[in-house]
């Protein structure tokens, strides 16, 4: 649990550290230069967040369980995407004349990015596979 930013003297120089609280009143000082190694705990609010002992087996078990859950979710996502890729989709007929008429009625000129996206969506719609695109 985050307590405060503390200034400590290290090798005769003042340095700033994050002071983190652990169980049994243990404290860990993390140099501000290493903030990228710290992440906010979002499992519960600050008052009810569980505190573990430094180097405790409970913390190691919690990390292993979280890693297993991440692997399970990743495996499920891979399965979903693999099944989706294996499915056959519906290929629309190319509406060249109708599309040209529709496009001519558009009152603005497309930006290069818009045109690239339009072309990609049209190509997806003409392909016999499920479209997987968010515009």
UniProtKB/TrEMBL annotation:
Pfam families: CarD_TRCF_RID. Residues 1-82 form the CarD-like/TRCF RNAP-interacting domain. InterPro entries: CarD-like/TRCF_RID, CarD-like/TRCF_RID_sf, P-loop_NTPase. This is Transcription-repair coupling factor.
């Amino acid at each position: 649990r985050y307590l405060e930013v503390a200034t400590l003297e290290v090798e005769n120089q003042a340095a700033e550290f994050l002071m983190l609280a652990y169980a049994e009143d243990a404290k860990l000082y993390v140099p501000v230069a290493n903030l990228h190694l710290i992440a906010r705990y979002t499992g519960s609010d600050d008052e009810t967040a569980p505190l573990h002992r430094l180097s405790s087996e409970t913390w190691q078990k919690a990390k292993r369980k979280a890693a297993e859950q991440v692997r399970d979710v990743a495996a499920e996502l891979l399965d979903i995407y693999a099944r989706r890729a294996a499915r056959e989709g519906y290929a629309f007929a190319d509406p060249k004349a109708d599309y040209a008429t529709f496009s001519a009625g558009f009152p603005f000129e497309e930006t290069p990015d818009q045109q690239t996206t339009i072309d990609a969506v049209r190509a997806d719609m003409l392909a016999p596979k499920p479209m997987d695109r968010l515009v």
